[in-house]
């Protein structure tokens, strides 16, 4: 096993002996897996307090919170190999030949400054603003300086969207993709794309860490994943959070100066966000059970499918089949598929729909963010459900109108109750559009 494969990585002592196959590494360092903080046993990998019931028959405690990444038992050591940044020099790592809008270029300049000064920063940009492209120059600056860069996201689908775009933009740079369903062996590369869970496998490995969709489940309000990000950063590290819907915690951090911030309230093609059309459907669930669609929804669906394909969101997995049958009964000539987080064919179905296969894709919130489909209308059925929070509805609405030639594609919210989340999501989109109009007026 090549020595470089261990750089920046961490294991339990048991895992290391298995992974390294007794390969001698004099740089190995150790730290306690548990520490007592305020008279409580705290795991040093995930930062969680060990629960009283997490106890082995011999009386030793273990951490149940990060058990997926290998069991840590009281008395264990976490072992790691310091990152050495042993990469071949890349003089011009950026091979992307595209251009940024003046607004994107301004945001990209700020990202370069943040990476150069190793600051902590939040970039708030509306869905479809082109956040990924705005990162390119900053990532290129880091790579040209011999730094190691990580781009992380909470969900696999987002990583699968980012990976090919970064591959194309940095064609001469080795890139490693890491997620829970990945079967390819680990490689030591200067640029890593991974889910935030994979950061538990690193310790002080990266000079620049970029976390996309920080307001998304499972990262949002998750202290374990926040700990994973923190530990993956070197002591001197640039840390950049990307979001379209910043949390109260992030806004507070910007206001207090703990984080710097920048905002871009307009899409890359210069058009504003699509504002949702809201329709009350008080008996939608009863209609769907009879494999029927409410007439308003049926007529709008038929109208949209004349010019666009359709992404239809439902609250729960159990709604998928019933809604699919209702759509097929109303429009038997179209192709309708379903997808959800537990679907074993999830990635294949998403790839097929992205490639243009199928007229309607019915989905849960698994596709709320981080995916781009060409020329689609967006329907949300049951928008009153608790899973459709303000930020989720804003992200869902942002799936429409992402290409300049289809910027006016519609978004529809169908609900039995007009919830606070629906109201605030619509208000937030209108507020961003007002900012976008003011920005347009400065040109």
Structural features, described:
This protein is an alpha/beta fold and 443 residues long. The chain folds into three domains: 3-80, no CATH class; 102-264, Rossmann fold; 277-441, P-loop containing nucleotide triphosphate hydrolases (Rossmann fold, 3-Layer(aba) Sandwich). Helices cover 31% and strands 20% of the residues. The chain contains twelve helices and 18 strands. It has helices at residues 13-19, 102-117, 131-144, 156-169, 223-232, 248-256, 284-289, 295-304, 317-330, 346-354, 390-397, 420-441; strands at 10-12, 29-32, 34-37, 40-43, 77-80, 120-125, 149-153, 175-178, 191-195, 206-211, 233-243, 260-264, 277-280, 309-313, 336-339, 360-363, 376-381, 411-415. Helix 2 runs parallel beside helix 3 and helix 11 (390-397) crosses helix 12 (420-441). The mean pLDDT is 93. Residues 296-443 form the Helicase C-terminal domain.
CATH topology name of the largest domain: Rossmann fold
Q: Any low-confidence stretches, pLDDT <50, length ≥5?
A: none
> How much is the average pLDDT?
93
What is the rounded Rg?
Answer: 23 Å
Largest sheet: 7 strands, parallel
Distance between the termini: 56 Å
Please identify, by name, the CATH architecture of the largest domain: 3-Layer(aba) Sandwich
CATH superfamily descriptor of the largest domain: P-loop containing nucleotide triphosphate hydrolases
Number of helices: 12
Strand order of the largest sheet: 8-9-7-10-11-6-12
InterPro entries: DEAD/DEAH_box_helicase_dom, Helicase_ATP-bd, Helicase_C-like, P-loop_NTPase
Domain Helicase C-terminal: 296-443
Keywords: ATP-binding, DNA-binding, Helicase, Hydrolase, Nucleotide-binding
Protein name: DNA/RNA helicase
């Amino acid at each position: 096993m090549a020595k470089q494969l261990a750089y920046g990585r961490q294991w339990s002592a048991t895992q290391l002996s298995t992974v390294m196959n007794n390969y001698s590494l004099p740089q190995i360092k150790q730290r306690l897996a548990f520490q007592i903080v305020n008279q409580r046993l705290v795991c040093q990998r995930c930062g969680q307090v060990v629960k009283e019931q997490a106890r082995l028959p011999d009386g030793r405690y273990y951490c149940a919170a990060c058990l997926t990444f290998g069991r840590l038992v009281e008395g264990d050591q976490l072992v790691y190999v310091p990152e050495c940044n042993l990469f071949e020099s890349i003089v011009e790592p950026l091979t992307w030949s595209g251009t940024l809008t003046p607004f994107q270029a301004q945001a990209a300049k700020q990202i370069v400054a943040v990476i150069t000064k190793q600051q902590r920063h939040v970039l708030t940009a509306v869905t479809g603003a082109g956040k990924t492209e705005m990162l390119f120059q900053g990532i290129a600056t880091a790579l040209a300086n011999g730094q190691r860069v990580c781009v992380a996201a909470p969900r696999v689908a987002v990583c699968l969207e980012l990976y090919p775009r970064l591959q194309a933009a940095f064609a001469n740079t080795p890139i490693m993709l890491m997620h829970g369903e990945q079967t390819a062996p680990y490689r030591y590369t200067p640029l890593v794309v991974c889910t935030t869970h994979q950061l538990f496998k690193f310790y002080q490995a990266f000079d620049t860490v970029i976390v996309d969709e920080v307001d998304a489940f499972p990262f949002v309000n998750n202290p374990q994943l926040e700990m994973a990000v923190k530990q993956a950063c070197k002591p001197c590290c640039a840390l950049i959070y990307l979001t379209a819907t910043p949390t109260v915690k992030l806004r507070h951090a910007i206001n207090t100066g703990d984080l710097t911030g920048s905002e871009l309230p307009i899409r890359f093609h210069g058009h504003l966000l699509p504002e949702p059309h809201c329709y009350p459907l008080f008996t939608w669930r009863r209609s769907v059970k009879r494999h029927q669609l409410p007439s308003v929804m049926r007529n709008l669906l038929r109208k949209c499918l004349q010019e666009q394909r359709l992404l239809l969101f439902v609250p729960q997995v159990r709604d998928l089949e019933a809604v699919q049958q209702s759509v097929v009964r109303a429009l038997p000539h179209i192709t309708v598929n379903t997808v959800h987080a537990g679907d074993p064919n999830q990635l294949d179905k998403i790839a097929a729909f992205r490639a243009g296969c199928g007229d309607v894709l019915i989905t849960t919130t698994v596709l709320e963010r981080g995916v781009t489909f060409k020329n689609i209308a967006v329907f949300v059925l049951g928008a009153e459900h608790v899973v459709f929070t303000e930020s989720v509805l804003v992200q869902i609405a942002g799936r429409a109108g992402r290409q300049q030639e289809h910027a006016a594609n519609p978004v529809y919210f169908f609900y039995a109750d007009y919830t606070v989340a629906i109201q605030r999501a619509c208000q937030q989109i209108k507020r961003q559009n007002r900012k976008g109009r003011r920005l347009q007026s400065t040109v």
